[in-house]
Structure formats: structure tokens, C-alpha cells
Hints:
two-stranded antiparallel sheet, disordered N terminus
Amino acid sequence: MPPEPAGRGDELPLRVSVATLDRVIFPHPQDGAPQLALERKASLEKDGRTRVWAQPFGGGVRILDARPLQALTGPLRFDSPRSQAEQDLRILIAPPDWEAVKRFCIRCLQDPENAVLEASPQRELHEEFAETLGLRLRPGQYTYRPAGFVVEDGPVPTDNVYARGLLTARLYHIFEVRLLDRELGAALLAAGQGTTDPALARLAREDARRGGRGRANAVLTLSLSRVRQAYAALPPAGRYRGITLAGHALDQSVLAILDGVDAPQYRRL
């Protein structure tokens, strides 16, 4: 359970989540058409149901030096023991502090040499490729470049299993990751086609029976243009939600990595 939050007076706290999201692209080995790689996840929920969805690769931004952030917020209150153990920037703050915290984070993340917040996607990307594919990603196999920020100022309840229901404002640091190794692209396609959603759900249930957290991971590959078209076909006010494409549930955060496809809830910087 997350710690009991403390606001200012009777004010309820705001959960802040700062994360990287990666637009992982590679050419289809047959026709060269851009493909989008997503992380597919399965989770055994408390009610016994198994949820399966796909989201961009990425994860929480790691705090390297907490002192400058504490100067803004006071002692850091993480949303869960897990975030505290990993030093992920998922913290509870007084709502009036959000603007200052947001500006501070953007300023740090714009400087890849800053010593306060992790500004590179590489650590998370390598860890997730190892977890989902069992592959050791090498720096020469890909390039990456920062592709701006997406801000979600309007707080919404999170479905994060460690802090479920807490009102959350988000800052996403977007990167475009291009895979250069054609064999790696072929491996992603094969892995995406080789694991069905029901099979992934079974793996999550088996993980729970073995005493794990009831989690399983795989990869999903889709035509980038098809994903764009699916979101662009929706009215802007209706894009901020999960959608189903090719029989797979896509998390609403997929929209955040699709530059040029906007929604009122996401502000691109």
C-alpha cells in the first residue's frame, strides 16, 4: 500500500509521475514500412481477472540527486515502497507545487549531462528488451533522439498497481528510437506474432502460482501508419483512451508518442 499522503492542511496530495516513453521504430524486413514496437504486458488483478495491454517502451525517470527536488517539495514522499526503492520520480506533492516541479523536471531533462534526473532512455530500454525478448540490446543496434515532452496537467486516477486510484499529473519525456539491426527487427516481428494475448495471460497466472507478482511481458509490433490512422480517425476529444487495434488493447499512453495526433488532455512541448 502507498504511504498515507499528507497535503497542506486539509488539501489532498497530488501524485506526480515523470517517465520516459519511447517511439521504437524499425523497417519491415519485406517492404521497409515503418513498424512500431510496443511492450505487451499481462497482470493478474486482485479480482482474479487477467488484464493484457500494450504500451510504449519506457519507464519512470530515476532520481539521481534528490536534494534539488527536496528544495522545492520538502522531504520526498514516494507513492509506494517500490518507487522509493528504485528512486523513480513518482512522488506525492502539494498541488500548488506542480508547476514548479514540472518546470524543474523539464529543465533538468533537457540537459543530458544533468546530475539530478536520468535524462537518457537507455537503461530502461535495455532492461525492457531483456525482459520482454531475452535479448541484450547493444548501443550499435539503435539510435535515439529526444522528441519533446508531453504534459498531462489534468490529474486523473492512476491504475498503477502500487498506487491505484491516486490522482496523478504526468510529464512524459518522449524519445524516438530507431532500430538499425534488421535481424533485431525480424526478431521483434517474430516475437510479436509468436505470443498471443491469451498465452501471455496464462503466463501471468502461472507466475502468480509460482509465488511471483502475477506479471508477464512480451512485445507487440504494428504498422506505425495503421496506429496513427486509428487514433487520427477519432475526434480529438475522444482520443484520450485505450483503443483496440488488430485485436489488441492499446493503452492511452500510446497516443503520447504519436507526434501530430493531438488530444486536449495532452500538451506537447
